Amino acid sequence: MDVFYSAQLSVPVIQIVFLLLISTLALLYGRIKLALLINYCFTLYWGYILNMDVIRETGPSITDTFTYMYFGFGLVIVMLAAVGFIAQRE
């Protein structure tokens, strides 16, 4: 648990601005589920892909099978939500 308190992750400001812009546009057009999916995708990206060097640096105690399964299930959720958006055309 000490690893989580001492880890420092960095997120570029331009990506935060981009996230806020896209989320705001989705919410203004009434696409609440799409805004939630966008935020979830950015969180997965920032947590696992952008800061992969920090995760690897902390050692094998944090990069075990559970970490990869969690990321894999996150990708499955994104794909299922995308299929749900396509299938639910109103």
UniProtKB/TrEMBL annotation:
The chain crosses the membrane at residues 12-30, 37-55, 67-87. Keywords: Membrane, Transmembrane, Transmembrane helix. This is Hypothetical membrane protein.
